UniProtKB/TrEMBL annotation:
Family according to the record: Belongs to the sulfotransferase 1 family.
Residues annotated as transmembrane: none
Stretches assigned to the Sulfotransferase domain: 49-271
Organism taxonomic ancestry: Bacteria, Pseudomonadati, Pseudomonadota, Alphaproteobacteria, Rhodobacterales
Organism superkingdom: Bacteria
Signal peptide start-end: none
Protein name from the UniProt record: Sulfotransferase domain-containing protein
UniProt keywords, alphabetically: Transferase
A Pfam family: Sulfotransfer_1
Length: 310
């Protein structure tokens, strides 16, 4: 009887709540996603020198890198319900009710989206960079049907929201902060595009950085980071723990689907956006990364990262 009542109340609550249908509503929903107290508690966690923080900007390969790191530290353990349960999102863990330890494997690993300025210091750091238009398109697809009703917000409106982000939460501030420290021994910076082009080389870089020499473990981690493998285990990478814990706090109805396992081909975002959006992103790049570091576009920065001719 109790379960039937709970199911009825859950269904009734889902009917009362409605998903936002504009950018303003989406932003109000996002305001309830993370609490300042929960974030502060996570970022105050004492850091061990062996801790690994995986901190790309949103939709730049975070889940993919979590899987690589987890595979390397455990030799391929897949017994987790969702990847966030074993590599907790450090600034969200308290809001999600997830412990930061114990964790499986030889060292602790955490997901984050923090800049170098905000991330807890004293550990090891892996960051993945991605073309900003591709990242925006991926975030749009991730939010659609979760933080706003499918079809209610245009790509152009969403692009303006991303372009207008402030207070250090934007893509460009995040990238700049990590670019400044890319040569530190405790920081590894890769590009999403290079991971797509040569996963073996990327896993090798990460394994070298983490000092994991066993070729068998490296091979397992690479195999389990392949698209086909992660797609076959899609529920383990779909943020269902986050949705279950935070949808009500955001005023969102239950039942959303937020898959993270997509092909995400490099450069696939630009054909999906207008010339005006492409021009706006190019201008934003010029006034931020271009003005500070001298790279005229993302491709030039990526070439410099990977030691290619500019």
């Amino acid at each position: 009887m109790g379960k039937k009542i709970c199911n009825f109340l859950g269904s009734l609550w889902g009917e009362i709540l409605q998903r936002p249908t504009d950018i303003g509503g989406m932003m109000r929903a996002l305001d309830g996603f993370m609490t300042s107290d929960g974030k502060a508690k996570g970022l105050a966690e004492p850091v061990c020198p062996t801790d690994v923080f995986i901190s790309p900007f949103a939709k730049c390969g975070t889940t993919w890198m979590q899987q690589i790191v987890h595979g390397l530290r455990t030799g391929g353990d897949m017994s987790f319900d969702e990847i966030t349960a074993v590599t907790p999102w450090i600034e969200m863990a308290h809001d999600l009710g997830l412990p930061l330890e114990p964790q499986p494997g030889a060292f602790r690993a955490f997901k984050s989206h923090q800049s170098w300025d905000e991330i807890p210091k004293g550990g090891r750091y892996i960051v993945v960079l991605r073309d900003p238009v591709d990242a925006m398109v991926s975030l749009f697809r991730f939010f659609e049907g979760w933080f706003f009703e499918t079809g209610s917000v245009s790509m152009e409106e969403f692009a303006q929201y991303v372009l207008n982000e402030r207070d250090g939460r934007d893509y460009w501030s995040h990238l700049a902060s990590w670019w400044d420290v890319r040569d530190r021994d405790d920081v590894l910076v890769l590009s999403y595009e290079s991971m797509k082009h040569d996963l073996h080389a990327a896993v090798t870089q990460v394994a070298d950085f983490l000092r994991i020499e066993d070729p068998v473990i490296r091979g397992i981690a690479e195999a389990q980071a392949q698209f086909a493998f992660m797609k076959a285990h899609e529920r383990q990478f779909d943020d269902h723990l986050t949705r279950a814990a935070r949808d009500a706090a955001c005023g969102l109805p239950p039942g959303s689907v937020a898959s993270k396992v997509n092909k995400g081909e490099a450069g696939s975002g630009k054909p999906l956006v207008s010339n005006n959006v492409q021009a706006a992103f190019a201008a934003k790049w010029t006034e931020t990364i271009g003005a500070r570091f001298g790279f005229g576009e993302y491709a030039a920065l990526r070439a410099a990262l990977e030691g290619q001719p500019g």
